Amino acid sequence: MTTTQQTPHHSPDDEPEEQNDSWRGYAEEGNDELSRATTVRLQKHSRKLLGELLRPYHKMIWLLVVIVLVENGARLAVPYLVSLGIDKGIPPIIASKHGLAGEGSQTLVTVVLVVFASALIQAFARQLFLMRSGRLGQTILLGLRRRVFDHFQRLSPSFHDKYTSGRVISRLTSDVDVIDEMLRTGFDGLVTALLTLVGTAVLLLVLDLQLGLIALLSFPALFMITRWFRRRSAIVYRRTREAVVLVIVHFVESMGGIRAVQAFRREPRNEEIFYDVNDKYREANLESFRINAIFMPSIKGVGNITIVAILAYGGWQAYHGHVTVGVLTAFLLYLRQFFEPLQDISQFYNTFLSASAALEKLSGVLNEKPDVAEPVKPAKPPAHTRGHLELRDVQFQYVDGVRVLPGLQLDVPAGQTLALVGTTGAGKTTIAKLVARFYDPTGGHVLLDGIDLRDLTEDDLRDRVVMVTQENFLFTGTVADNIRFGKPTATMDEIVDAAKVIGAHDFIMALPDGYETAVAKRGSRLSAGQRQLVAFARAFLADPAVLILDEATSSLDIPSERLIQRALRTILDDRTAIVIAHRLSTVETADRVIVLEHGRIIEDGAPSTLITTGGNYAGLHQAWEDSLA
Amino acid sequence: MPSEQPVQAPSIAAPSSRTTPRRSQNLWRLRPYLRPHKWRLLIMFSTAILGVGVGLSVPLVTRAIIDGPVTRREIDLLLPLGLLALGLSISEVLLVWVRRWAQSRAVSDLEAALRNDLYIRLQALPMEFHNRWQSGQLLSRVTADLSTIRRFMGFGLLFLVINILQLVVVTVLLLRLYWPLGVVVLVAAAPIIVVSLQFEKKYLAISRLVQDQQGDLATRIEESAVGFRVIKAFGRREHVKQQFDDGAVKLYDTSVDKVRLSARFWTFLGVIPNLTLVIVLLLGALAVGREAITLGTLVAFITLMLSLIWPVSSLGTILAMAQEAMTSADRISEILDTESTITDGPDELVNPRGHLRFENVSFRFSPDSADVLHHIDLDLAPGTTLALVGATGSGKTTLTSLVPRLYDVTGGRITIDGHDVRDLTTRSLRSAVASAFDDPTLFSMSARENITLGRPEATEADVQQALEIAQATFANDLPWGLETRVGEQGMSLSGGQRQRLALARAVLARPSVLVLDDTLSALDVHTEALVEEALRNVLAETTGIVVAHRASTVMLADQVALLENGTITAVGTHQELLATVPAYRQLLAAEEEEVHA
Ligand SMILES: Nc1ncnc2c1ncn2[C@@H]1O[C@H](COP(=O)(O)OP(=O)(O)OP(=O)(O)O)[C@@H](O)[C@H]1O
Ligand SMILES: Nc1ncnc2c1ncn2[C@@H]1O[C@H](COP(=O)(O)OP(=O)(O)OP(=O)(O)O)[C@@H](O)[C@H]1O
Ligand SMILES: [Mg+2]
After folding, report:
1. Gap between the Cα atoms of B157 and B103, Å rounded
2. Which of A207, A312, A454, B553 is in Cβ range 3.0-4.6 Å of B548 for a Cys bridge?
3. Distance in Å, alpha carbon of A131 to nearest chain B alpha carbon
């Protein structure tokens, strides 16, 4: 028996694993170092993803650009108008000495009115922009959430085995949050930045070519600084994303297993571990803040120096009468308007880069293909499945080199109830999972009514085959919700009937709110046996052609189990069933028993005949009888 | 699956029940986390204030250049003034750099320290708390809420102070430049304050809603990930997606509401300075016309005024940030304020013998529900083993979890060697009691680490012996032997293998009280027999409670207690109970009713 927990071989995100932490144990790890090629590939993918996310809204985006243009036009007009007012509006007033009542005031009044109008336009456009872009951002985010969530649900169990739930959670929460932050703040900032950049540059050139050219000299410097920042932060933000995953994984796991943590005094050790991963995250964060601490002031520095240069040179020019005081003033105002928001724009740029790192991770996930693929040309199964199962020469291994099933032949006629028994780890659950197509066999075929499972669409298959797994997971919600999970369209009566058949009705009615009692986290409101009953009722409600019961009654007391057996006899009458049980009382209700050892069938026959042949099953049965009383 | 009403969602401390003054306090009380960084904070604030001062003096130099060298044609002043401007500009940059550098360390430490403390706190909180709280709500608190607070402490708070300072200083400067215009600017501040206060209230409510909904969504995400195999097995992808979608759309709607609210506020903040500018321009022109001020003064005045636009309009973002940080602090405080009901007692349990007594114990999960257990009296002499038999849901697991104080009794008491378990330190109590639970939890770490959970100092021989007893020697054959990581929830092991590792863990702890809660349910009959054989020796030396559904397991015990309707109705040996108690006979299926039908 061999198992490993591995991180994915070609994992979309090769999280750094500390090999020196021996407590984690060893497992086949993915390649830690992100090769250059992978990085480039990831960046390409994430850019593609971004494109796909934005494409449906390109009309809206253009509209937003127009709105921003108007807003910025209005905003940029203000300093220009002010300079106009100072240059053209005020001198006549000084000359006429009559204040606003005089003749010369017309220009000034016009200018003031235009400033007023542009203030209103700016406000209107701003409001419109904030609203529209905010909603657009949320729409994109909603789309992204849906997409990633759905993709995770489509991926195969083997992917989830390796990826672990903590990572799924961190992708869908922490990574999406970072993107949310960018969409909330970054979009506004970046669009404004670009427009301000271009707009100011043009205006400056128009106002005065020479001064404008000096101002433009700052652009290459800004460009260089930004490029440096982008390179550095790409690395750092990737590290941040990876570090936060470890934090979340550890957090989720220790809170999920809190009972064992407390009972075995795991707290101090967990604290150490958490401190460790948390500290790594802190370090990554610190580094990202630090490169920001260099980046932001540098941008500001370029701005300041440019302003001083213009001031000195412009002052010189104005002294010689080459430029007017008004132009110089306008110039300084524009430069200010350019560099002042730029500080915050670089902040936005920063969230943008951080979001790109998250987007990379998400696009990595979206690029994962399910190992268990949907068929290209799905076969059309008959509407009424009979449930004839066939395993032809099925081989299977979880890990290379360790065969769990070396080659299994099994034919289960429609309507038969087949029991699988055998030592633990013999491969019973594995067979069940192959029939439910959690995995595809590494060799051979699994057929349902003569159709290879690989040719069935997932929906067709799940309509026909339902499995009650060993870990009977309950979801947050009421008891009724959890039973209804088997058939979302079920009425309350159907739910109650299902519970009655299984023998769960009585205990449910004894709960404070009956069927509407919330089961609390992971069903912790219920006892282990009660959870199993609910899980059983949910499978019963699903009413599939093929029902797989994997240790579905292991935690029940014997009377409840008896009740279920009685029910099973009618439930399983008209359908194919695979029953895995260590309790032979359950097995005895089956039409046929298979004894499994190391993935091979060693005995096969009706329970009543197998008892008499004195083989392995007979031994098991004897031991079972002895265990009873 | 969850279709729970939003009411039950945040599951604790109804948000609306909190009053406003309380809210800001929650953020304020986080200040001890900043204490280690007081020098950094001092640097942050002083460089920030200096930076504002320097930034503000640049326009004054501008004025000097325009008024002096240009207007009054004092060209020799151009060079010194230019150099002054350059010096000021560069020092402004340096100040920003120093401030950010100091701030980086302070805020990243703050976030990490808070997260650590929350984690420690959460681990210490009792099971009752963990059952009640949705996992996603906890997760969103240690991730999203903490970054919100970090962001506010780093940028928001600083800029809030700086912006306000800048507003005040600029206004004073404006007043001094030319007071009538200054007054105009001052008056314009009034509507800003009024609207800000209104905004604050609304925004608080909506950001709380958003953050709670994010937590709910996180719960769904977590369940969809952890319950993935069940969803797959039933083919309920669409169903689950629909539910996720409902949550996501709800979040979308509130987020859009939030956007709408802030859009209005921010626009308002943007428009006020512009309108003021109109008035100032008009009045300024008049003043220049009357020669009350020079043209240079008006230019400087307007330049200064324009430098107000940014601080005012960014005030919107910062106030929003502050509200969110307060909400986050509230949410975090809900955890920090939860008192752990299970606290250490004063006594140490030294060399425990394992004399376990239940004295008239009763238990209920919440004060307003009925007793799950009542009038439980049991006396387990050191070295004896008690089998606990009862129907599904009769309270066996509950009874056993009272011993290591996963829950506290609500009536009567439990003693070990004469000490009430509540008088003992949890550490010494829990090292004396080890349990194997009905659902075996394995952590994502090496098999060895999993097994030695209760006794990290165990030797290799001890480990091997425990594996032997639990029939779990397969662990040695894993690819890296005992150093192999067994995965999330031990998912890559078979059910029986997991259960045996969990059993080995309990056995290895060498407790004086060993609790086995239906730990053999996933084992085949042969393996079970082997384990039982080995367990017999272990149980001979310790006090044991064995929860059993089958006679073979019951045989491990010296005594059997039958749990019915929340209390022990019969105690005796297996044979005695079989002979005298029909309910017992029925539970253990000794009554052969139609097994072979
Ligand atoms: N996801 C997995 N990855 C790697 N190995 C696995 C995985 N799942 C199961 N195995 C291994 O495959 C073998 C067969 O496991 P399986 O779950 O089929 O056993 P089983 O017969 O159902 O046992 P049990 O009665 O204990 O449930 C075991 O050795 C197990 O460790
Ligand atoms: N957290 C909880 N809050 C409220 N009631 C609970 C909680 N946990 C369990 N219960 C109820 O308490 C009763 C006893 O549960 P317990 O888990 O102790 O049963 P059990 O005897 O161990 O059953 P099983 O054999 O199925 O494991 C059950 O009826 C259950 O519904
Ligand atoms: Mg139990």
Report:
1. 11
2. B553
3. 6
A contact test, residue of B40, B60, B63, B70 with most A CBs within 10 A: B70
Cross-strand bridge partners of residue B319: none
Q: Is residue B100 domain-shared with residue B195, that is, in the same domain?
A: no
Interchain CB contact of B307 with A (< 8 Å): yes
Whether B459 and chain A come into contact, CB under 8 Å, resolves to: no
Structure tokens belonging to residue A294: 């260099």
Closest chain A CA to residue B452? A264
- Model's pTM, two decimal places? 0.87
**Candidates A507, A509, A530, A536: which one to mutate for ligand 2, based on the most atoms within 8 Å of Cβ?**
A530
pLDDT confidence band for A311 (50 / 70 / 90): confident
Three-state DSSP string of B498-533: HHHHHHHHHHHCCCCEEEEECCCCCCCHHHHHHHHH
* Same domain, residue pair B137 and B202: no
Each residue of B222-275: pLDDT tens digit?
889 888 888 888 888 888 999 999 999 999 999 999 999 988 998 888 888 888
- Domain count of chain A? 2
Whether B40 and B174 map to the same domain: the answer is: yes
Q: How far is CA B425 from CA A77, A623, B128, in A?
A: 73, 44, 19
Cβ A342 vs Cβ A303: under 8 Å: yes
Per the listing, tokens 């001979």 go with: B540
What's the CA-to-centroid distance between A555 and ligand 3, angstroms?
8
Residues B557 and B446 in one domain: yes
Within an 8 Å CB–CB cutoff, is residue A625 touching chain B?
no
* pLDDT at residue B25 tops 80: no
- Spell A94-116 as b/e; 16+ CB within 10 A means b: eeeeeebeeebbebbeebbebbb
Q: Of A521, A527, A555, A564, which is best to mutate to test ligand 2, by the most ligand atoms within 8 angstroms of its C-beta?
A: A527
For residue range A361-409, list pLDDT tens digits in order: 898 888 888 888 888 888 887 777 778 889 999 999 887 777 888 888 8
Interval B79-110: pLDDT, tens: 888 888 889 888 988 998 998 899 899 889 99
Task: Check CB contact of B518 with chain A, cutoff 8 Å.
Answer: yes
Candidates B222, B248, B550; nearest CB to A169:
B222
Task: Please answer yes or no on whether B123 and A267 come within 8 Å at the CB atom.
Answer: yes
Q: Which two tokens stand for residue A144?
A: 């992204």
Cα distance between residue B44 and residue B153, in whole Å: 11
Residue closest to A183 by CA, chosen among B258, B543, B519: B258
In a domain, A479, yes or no: yes
Residue B11 lies in a domain: no
A397 with A329, same domain: the answer is no
In a domain, A7, yes or no: no
Q: How far is A527 from chain B (nearest CA, A)?
A: 5
The residue type found at B273 is P
Task: Indicate the burial class of A609 (C-beta count within 10 angstroms; 0-12, 13-18, 19 or more).
Answer: exposed
Q: Do residues B39 and B119 both lie within one domain?
A: yes
Pocket lined around ligand 1, Cβ cut-off 6 Å: A 1, 3, 161, 398-399, 404, 422, 424-430; B 492-497, 522
Q: Would the CB atoms of B299 and A86 count as touching at under 8 Å?
A: yes
* Residue B18: DSSP 8-state: S
Measure B38 CA to nearest chain A CA, in Å. 18
Q: Which helix (H) or strand (E) holds B359?
A: strand B356-363
Instruction: Supply the CATH number for residue B387's domain.
Output: 3.40.50.300
pLDDT value of residue A103: 62
Q: Which atom of ligand 1 is nearest to the CA of A4?
A: 4
Q: Which residues of B touch A564 (CB under 8 A)?
A: none
What is the CA(B500)–ligand 1 centre distance, in A? 13
